[in-house]
Every structure is written in C-alpha cells, then in structure tokens.
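Summary of Year 1 activities. Much of the first year was spent building the evaluation harness for sequence design. The harness presents a backbone, in tokenized form, and records the residue chosen at every position. We chose the following record to illustrate the format because it has been used consistently in internal testing since the harness was completed.
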C-alpha cells in the first residue's frame, strides 16, 4: 500500500492504471491520477491533527480551483465545502473550525472518507479502514466503500479482519511472506481455507485440510 500510494519508493516492477504506467509515484501524483487512500494509520498518514476540520477536508486539492486562486486560498469556499461534507458524511463535530485532533476516532475516519470520496476517483485503496472504530462507525465505513464499488470505482481493501474481508470483497488475494499465494472468489471462500493459506499452506494443501478444520468446530475457528 505504501508503494502504491507513493509513501515508499518501489524497489522493482511498475504500476499501471487503465493501461498507463506511472512515470512518477509520489502521493500528489497518485492523487491527481484519481487514486483515493484510506490509510492504516489515520493520524500519521491521513490527517494533520493540529489543523482544523475544514483544512483537513481539502488536503488533496487545496491548491486547485475553486479552493485556491493562484497562491491565495479561498477560505470562504473551503469553509462552505467543509460544512457541506460534514452534513453529507455525518461528521460529528461542534464546528469545522476545531482541530481534527479533538474528534473521536470514528469521526476522524469520516473526515478522511469524506475528503477522499468527494472528489472524482477511479481507484480506492483502503488499508485497515475500520481499525479501532466502534460498531456504528464500522458499518458506516463499510456501506460507503460498497457504494463506491457500486458506482464503478475499483477497490483494493487490505485488512487483517477476515469477517471484514469476506463481507466486502468480490475476490480475495491471500498473501504469505510478501507473495500472493492464491486469489479466491469471495462467494466460495471459507475462514478455514483462508486461514490455512495465511499460515503458509499451498492451495492444494489448504483445500485438503480445510474440511477437517470445519469439522473441528469452535476450537478451529479460534485458531484463525
């Protein structure tokens, strides 16, 4: 995820989007190509905690019209935009002027989702999008991701939560030690089979062992 979003340099290979190869992979270049990013660490990579909610909602495009005219920020437009997004995405904040650090974790995540989803995007990269959130916020984020998928946006969801993966995914790619070992249709996947692949089994070995895991009952479920 860090490589795809320009947070770390790529050591080998290339990244293409709609048949066009990225010549540069920096966060700004990636964003300008229509890629949205919900980062794993929202406070480190998703928000500027000492900045107000309004400013955090334009971090991706503050330098572009209508939010900027030359080098001058258009504060009235930024405030109006933020107030509309606060209502649209149900961000619970006393004001768009308060520092985003004062918001709850769920509302901080909603700020990121509102910012990323309110601009034209072709790809959404969501890494651990509901980590540390309450049940209501989790459901809200899930529904927003599914809505984007239904609009035609490609979604790459990275999560360690099997329930989340199985609930949201159309296809599931399982990685072990940095390599994709299998891509499974979500409708045919089971927790047992995915867990065995995550533990390092080959697809053939996992297919043979998975039925045994299913018969093992609750004890097997806790293993994964």
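For this record, the design step produced the sequence shown next.
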């Amino acid at each position: 995820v860090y490589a795809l979003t320009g947070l770390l340099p790529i050591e080998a290979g290339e990244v293409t989007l709609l048949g066009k190869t990225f010549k540069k992979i920096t966060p700004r270049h990636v964003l300008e190509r229509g890629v949205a990013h919900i980062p794993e660490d929202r406070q480190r990579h998703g928000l500027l905690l000492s900045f107000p909610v309004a400013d955090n909602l334009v971090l991706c495009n503050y330098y572009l019209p209508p939010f900027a005219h030359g080098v001058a920020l258009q504060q009235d437009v930024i405030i109006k935009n933020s107030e509309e997004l606060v209502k649209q995405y149900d961000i619970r904040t006393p004001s768009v002027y308060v520092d985003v650090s004062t918001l709850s974790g769920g509302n901080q995540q909603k700020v990121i989702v509102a910012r990323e989803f309110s601009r034209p995007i072709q790809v959404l990269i969501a890494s651990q999008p509901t980590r540390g959130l309450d049940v209501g916020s989790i459901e809200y984020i899930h529904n927003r991701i599914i809505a984007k998928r239904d609009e035609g946006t490609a979604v790459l969801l990275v999560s360690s939560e099997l329930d989340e993966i199985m609930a949201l995914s159309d296809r599931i790619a399982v990685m072990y030690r940095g390599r994709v070992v299998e891509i499974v249709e979500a409708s045919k996947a089971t927790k047992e089979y995915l867990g065995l692949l995550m533990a390092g089994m080959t697809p053939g070995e996992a297919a043979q062992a998975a039925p045994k895991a299913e018969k093992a009952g609750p004890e097997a479920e806790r293993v994964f």
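Confidence is low (pLDDT under 50) at residues 213-224. Quantitative recovery figures across the full test set are reported in Table 2.
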